[in-house]
Amino acid sequence: MMLGACATAENPAAAPVSTSAPIIEDSAIASEFGMLASLVGTRWYGEPGDADKAQGQPADYSEWNWDLGGSVLVNRHVLADGSYGGVTYVQKNRASGELDYVYITSAGFRTSGSFTLNDDGSWTAYETVTGLNDIIGVRSTGRLTEDGALVSVSEFETRDGWKPGHEFRYEPTIEPMPELVPSLEIE
């Protein structure tokens, strides 16, 4: 999944995820999303870690916006080659107080889970995967670094236990999001 602290310049080639009115960063609604609210209005370019690069993992683009009047935080991402993308919808669960989310992918599977916002400004998440045979869950961590980057690390839960997932380091960008042209093949 995945994220940033710097606002990006307007780019007419990149359609916004939402046309909702902007939410003031220190508003009561934004405060429910903790540091994730600071990502709204930003776009990121993510380089995969060395192990992922060795496996041919493309870079990733990610952007954050509000929707539904600021009650939902939306993250949209697309791989640099346009082969895969997904949209994450994050909303505060009024009953539990947690930030629940659903991630819907161009490959025909989805996940759902909850974010935990940590005191150090990082976040952790666990999500259940529906629609894949080999991966049944994902746990991940993310944080903004002192130099303004966003880093994320994930692990995949399989029927045989936990396996390394993906590592990405995102930097703010004004580059447009790539066009999504998925193959719809689930590996």
What would the average pLDDT be, to the nearest integer?
Answer: 86
Spatial arrangement of strands, main beta sheet: 1-2-3-4-5-6-7-8-9-10
**What is the H level of CATH, i.e. the homologous superfamily?**
Calycin beta-barrel core domain
When the domains are counted, the total is 1
Could you tell me the radius of gyration in angstroms?
16 Å
Task: Give the topology string: H per helix, E per strand.
Answer: HEHEEEEEEEEE
Number of strands: 10
Q: Describe the biggest sheet? A: 10 strands, antiparallel, barrel
Q: Could you say what the CATH topology is called? A: Lipocalin
In CATH, what is the class? Answer: Mainly Beta
Structural class, by secondary structure, is mainly beta
With helices defined by DSSP (H or I, 4 residues minimum), what is the helix count?
2
Organism: Hyphomonas atlantica
Protein name: DUF1579 domain-containing protein
Fold and architecture overview:
It is a single chain. The protein is mainly beta and about 190 residues long. The protein has a single domain, classed as Lipocalin, CATH 2.40.128.20. About 5% of the residues lie in helices and about 45% in strands. The chain contains two helices and ten strands, in the order H-E-H-E-E-E-E-E-E-E-E-E. Strands 1-2-3-4-5-6-7-8-9-10 form a ten-stranded antiparallel β-barrel. A hairpin with a 4-residue loop joins strand 5 and strand 6. The protein is globular, with a radius of gyration of 16 Å. The N terminus is likely disordered.
